[in-house]
Amino acid sequence: MIHRLPAAALMAATLLAAPTALAQAWPAKPVRFIVTLAPGSAVDIVARIVGESISKPLGQPVVVESRVGAGGVVAAEFVMRSPPDGHTILVGSIASHGINPSLLQKIPYDAMKDFAPVVSLASSPNVLIVSNSLPARSVKELVALAAKRPGELTYASGGNGTSHHMGGELFGLLGKVRMSHVPFKGSPQAVGAVVSGEVALMFPNIPNAMGLAKAGKVRILGVTTPKRLSWWPELPTIAESGLPGYEVIAWFGLFAPAGTPTAVIDRLNAESNRALAQPAVRENLVQQGFEIMGGSVQEFTAFVRSELDKWARVVKASGAKAE
């Protein structure tokens, strides 16, 4: 005898099974990780390490693609307008989902309404680097030099709204000095301008500066974290070097277009957290100066909201403008 479920029970069972089936069916093709800055930048490094690790369990390649422009706005808008099927994911950052929504007068997306936060991946301290041609050898000396030459000292960034940009704005605000912002298309180009002496200084993510500093091509005057780094204890913080309260930490995470199925978001979150727990992945990220993040969708959502609030206050207090 065949027992038939009542129509209501059958529908309920189908709805309960649908998310699992959907998550198992996804991805049906390669997944694109859209990054906000140029190849070789910190966000690009994180995307490639995590993307490579999750591609095998997903059963599809993860392709990292740069969409450079406006400190992450170009990439974010591209993903926002992509089909919400989990195959086009933004590797967002402090710029795209922290700073630019307050910094830019016109922005084509709402950082929260137009995206579904998926997972935080990693964070990176920034450091203050100066050209070898600049006479300042400490934060206090740099502040004094900038005070004597208002507006003359230039600082580079990988684009408007990046943590490098806000690093300079916050330095000027707390140090009560005025410097000139010079945005580039990406971190590697901006750091290169400091190496050549074209630009006086920068506040890059540490992965883009460590090798150059160790090779003697630039000088690092301090780190932007509130406490010294456990793995580089001799490097002083900018806060302890004369600017109390100074803190800028870049972060990177995955965002899907709004409307992406919850089952897809949950699976991408789970696979990303598994990747971040792997010793080889952790070692690779840590060796390049990153801190591991990870966590639930809910935790990342709350974190993004707090970052939006924080940088809205800094932008207003500093009077920062997009160049």
Q: How does this structure look, described?
A:
With 323 residues, the chain is α/β, with parallel strands linked by helices. It has 2 domains: 164 residues, Bordetella uptake gene, domain 1 (D-Maltodextrin-Binding Protein, domain 2), CATH 3.40.190; 97 residues, D-Maltodextrin-Binding Protein, domain 2. 43% of the residues lie in helices and 18% in strands. It contains 11 helices and 11 strands. The strands form 2 sheets. A 6-stranded mixed β-sheet has the order 2-1-3-10-4-11, sandwiched between helices. The chain has a 5-stranded mixed β-sheet with strand order 7-6-8-5-9, with helices on both faces. Helix 6 links the parallel strand 6 and strand 7. Helix 1 packs across helix 9. It is globular. The N terminus is likely disordered.
Offer a quick outline of the entry:
This protein is α/β, with parallel strands linked by helices and about 325 residues long. It is built from eleven helices and eleven strands. It has helices at about 5-25, 40-60, 75-80, 95-105, 140-150, 165-175, 185-195, 210-215, 260-275, 280-285, 295-320, and strands at about 30-35, 60-65, 90-95, 115-125, 125-130, 155, 180-185, 200, 220-225, 250-255, 290.
Poorly predicted runs are: 1-18
Look at the structure and give the CATH class of the largest domain: Alpha Beta
The CATH architecture assignment of the largest domain turns out to be: 3-Layer(aba) Sandwich
Helix fraction bin: 40-55%
Number of discrete helical segments: 11
Main beta sheet, described?
Answer: 6 strands, mixed
Share in β-strands: 15-25%
Q: What does the radius of gyration come to?
A: 22 Å
Identify the strand order in the major beta sheet.
2-1-3-10-4-11
Mean pLDDT: 91
Assembly state: single chain
